[in-house]
Amino acid sequence: MAIVTVSDALNGKGRVDPSTRARVAEVARQLGYQANRHARGLRSGHSRALGLVLPVRGDARSDEALSLDFYMRLAGAAAVSAFSHQQSLMLLPPKIGRSDLRGLALDGGIVVDPRHADPRVTLFEEVGLPVVTIERDPGRADTAYVACRTGEITQAILEHLEQQGAQRIALLLPRVEWAWAAETLAAYESWVTERGRPRVVARASMLHGERSAYEATTRLLARRDSPDAIFVLAARFIRGVLRGAEDAGRTVPGSLLIAAGVDSVHAREGHPPVTAWDLHPERQAEEAVEMLLERISGGGAAQPRFVVATPHLRASTGC
Amino acid sequence: MAIVTVSDALNGKGRVDPSTRARVAEVARQLGYQANRHARGLRSGHSRALGLVLPVRGDARSDEALSLDFYMRLAGAAAVSAFSHQQSLMLLPPKIGRSDLRGLALDGGIVVDPRHADPRVTLFEEVGLPVVTIERDPGRADTAYVACRTGEITQAILEHLEQQGAQRIALLLPRVEWAWAAETLAAYESWVTERGRPRVVARASMLHGERSAYEATTRLLARRDSPDAIFVLAARFIRGVLRGAEDAGRTVPGSLLIAAGVDSVHAREGHPPVTAWDLHPERQAEEAVEMLLERISGGGAAQPRFVVATPHLRASTGC
DNA sequence: CTGAAAGCGCTTACAG
DNA sequence: CTGAAAGCGCTTACAG
For residue B65, what pLDDT band results from cuts at 50, 70 and 90? Predict the structure, then answer.
């Protein structure tokens, strides 16, 4: 039997007789044969390796570890998912250069939480590599992405808070250009407008998340017309909001409801535990891997894929 | 100029004249030339790729995200460190088979927090790949590893607690066969014996960390001769211990001191914040990468490398 | 110090 | 449906 036949049998090329293929597969299994990655890559021009770029962490040391359970779940699932498609997953450092990327021989990349016109997405494009982002890059129209339906989640959270008795719901947003933050704000604004509710929007910085959220909460609760519910967007704000409420003499959920737009350790282990929507980073990773593989094999249009978020109702909203 | 010369110049082989080398380097820079990874790998037999295996996560969904900031810091630093050595870092799924590993064309692997005679370490060895573990595999004598000096850390923590007034220090251990747990216990026992202090050891399970730690704490504090300090080993126990103390009517640090053997979100953001020792996962990752590269290039004996932990003194011990 | 040849192990493109 | 040849882009081993 010629080498070609073995190669084609193992790679599922149609030209091989089924019985030949079965025989080859059996022997390969017995011998534990695996095609040499480099030989295959050299000849075929693809690597079967995907790159994963996680968001750049803030400079503040104390801050960097704060929202990481989301990314850890995502990265782990991306590795498992890539392997199930016979691909490997390369973890890229947050700061990569163009020549780094060239030398890596990747087939494509996944960029998580891109900023506005994220330069790391540009890098992939310049090198001619397909790229998929998790969450939309607000500065780009044509990039393939996986995301949650932020508008629907926002509505669901607002309705839950209202159902639990909230009249004046404040929104606490991060000061970043992430798409989901902008979309949440838009959905919030149209919701309060439609219902004739007051619009109360506060901002906190991601870098000193807890402190900044604490200060924002303190300010919110000191107002004459202070809110009776806070919709917190970022995981790292939750502790600050809880402390702010406590120091302002508010009990949760007694005199203040709190809900979060993304689930996290902070929400689950809050004091009290905070109602939050699970964005399922595992599924986002799976979808991103599949979408990227489609793009690598020349697959068509960049239809975004959406992952459905599910609520975890907890004590902070009286559940 | 022959192709060989370019190759040798770029790879720092001694045979090339310095001026030739400089010329080659300059042109390569201008052209953004990077040697093809596959061609290089095929001929030279090495991949310049390292594998990273993080601990298998528990099955319980709520549990898996609990101690992840440590691993996230570690993984990020491993990627950066690998890249600084012109290596790439492959994130491996927790369950890899032998043939997976063969097909990956890795040069070596790092296994984090190996269990007793960890099968994933065995896998690397069977495939003939160098491996370094972060923390020692208690079931192996000869494996290269990076670790903290657990005995010294234990002593430092016990002394700090004593200095802050503790007389009866309990130790709360996980029920796992990790080396650091066993070493902490040994150091604790010799310390209490030397000083004639009572030996109070409790165990909690990693799977339902918070609940299990809560129950253990409740039991500890219900004893007639209940401890006035608890030394908590695992990050995920901290919340349970804090709740247990609160429900037992103990104020921290007023009537109970708490210190943790590893820093984490739980410690930093505890209520009150908990004194903890930072094991510097970033440095552990750097050391592991360097150690692995040494082993790959045939470097000598498997002398373990130690990373120095540093204390973060916080309110839970009256700081 | 530099070069010409061989070859790593596959897959592709061309024949039959 | 199967095969013989060429070649992917480097590095190694051998010459000079």
Answer: very low
